[in-house]
Amino acid sequence: MDLLSPAVVENPYPAFKELREYEPAHWSNEHNAWLITRFEDVIRGYKDPRLSSAHISNLFQGPQDAPSQKILDGWMEFRDPPDHTRLRKLVQKAFTPKVVESLKPRIQEIANDLIKSLNPQTPEDLVKQFAYPLPAIVIGEMLGVPSTDREQFQIWSNEIKNLIFGIGDERERRVTARKGLFELRKYFEGILFELHNNPRDGLLNSLVEAKEANEKLTADEIIGTCVLLLFAGHETTTNLIANGILALSKQPQDVRKMFSDQENSSRVVEEVLRFEGPLKLMVRSAKTSLSLKGQRVRKSDRVFLIQASANRDERQYEDPDKFWPSRKDRPHLAFGHGIHFCLGAPLARIEGQIALGELFTRFPRLKVDTHKPSWEASILSRSLKELPTILEPQEE
Predict the structure, then answer these.
(1) Which of 58, 63, 236, 373 has the lowest tally of Cβ within 10 angstroms?
(2) Do 162 and 168 touch, CB atoms closer than 8 A?
(3) 275 is in which domain, residue-wise?
């Protein structure tokens, strides 16, 4: 199967369903990887210590890529225990429930400001005008990034996204990502130097001061973590918000009105995450030869744990292709599972609830102005290129 074929990019779920039914461990020649599609098997894959997260070297080819690889090596997402355990314990000190909860008023303010800037009388691209800037502003402010630099950060983030998410020509995306990562490193080195001379409260200072068993993050790890937080802190949340707008635009008014209280608002966002989550899969590499669903996986083989398929598994969910916020509580894998469960999940959930809640409260009849949404041709992400939307459609 080719995950980048136009039909699968537009709607991967029928193909995933066929794999779940007939070949739940499928070898893809196109991606040189095993595709794992059933819920229980994806869960098992996340827990299996024989499947390594340390696969970033596969993205690079020569000594010219060493500086870029060094930065991404600092991402806990690309580390196995014990390195991953140490990094996560240190970084999570900057993402306590108290810290995340304290951000809610500011997120609300940002959402309202963005909504006020929208023109109800003309179609608006809600990816560009709403879903992207909200989480970008939030994580930028957390890291102490000046608002004047946000446009440049979007350029750098897109360059990294093309590499990590497998978008576009392989050689070109490696070259542009190398440039973006180098410039980001220099940028954060400058901020760290300034912070050393003029300490101030904030996420970056929390990372500098974080300690665990007399260990601290190294300068390279701090910079790598900053790049990770900047990238993951808005790319995936942008997808959550945009995909949520698209999914809810197809729902009746009683579903849209569920944002009127906290409990129902949470249910809607959880269903968005299950139904059309921001990521399609996570990549692992076999540390040793092993067997998956009767298939022989060789050492160093890549394994794609396809959470987007697992979240539509009919063995796990009743009527899984139906958007149903009131379904009985069941876990989903939109944020991964196990030791690599997304550290920023609580923040993403809050941003999603506030963004979607404020938007559909202000524009309850909102209508997406296209019959065929334009999806990014990405291996990893489920992301919309644009989302033209009529905020206040005329009465039919």
Answers:
(1) 63
(2) yes
(3) 6-390
